[in-house]
Design a protein that fits this description.
about 190 residues; mainly alpha; flat
Amino acid sequence: MRKYREEEPLLNKDKMKTMAFSNLVGSIIFLAIGIWAWFQTDNFPEVANTYVQASTFPRVMIVGMLIFSVVLLIQSIFKLMGTMKPTDPVAAEVGTLNPLKDKGVAAAYLVMLLCVLFAALFKSCGYILCAVVLSMIIMFLIGKRNWVQMVLVSVLVPLLMWLVFYKVLTVNIPLGPLNFLRTLVDMI
């Protein structure tokens, strides 16, 4: 990265490599996703005589995402249009998204792929099996090496979450080959 004197502002071509420019691009992407998601919630079924609908919680989250995206967009525009000094935190040069150069980026890509696999295998393998495998891999990627802790957390958390959904919220989540757990819990 080029060295600047303290009072020298960044040139326009240098601004394209800054965190401020990345924030601008990210805010536009999240605005587009938020608007798309808002219109998708129109397709959710409505229940008669109920104030809180299926679309209520997603819309609250979408509004929050839109508000923060607009704030980030405005901040980025002001930083990019104004004179940004090299000492400004958003003037820092952004890292690479090349998984060959950055191990953290490679791990992030792997987690994204695992989440897609989680969604694809959710019905056939069931929530608990998918969640156990996913949480074990993620815990390994973030540096956990206590295998007892990893196994306990990876098994107990999905089981307890399924139990809360099944018994408290009365939501049937696919269990795949572990479908016997449903009858076992019903007997208790």
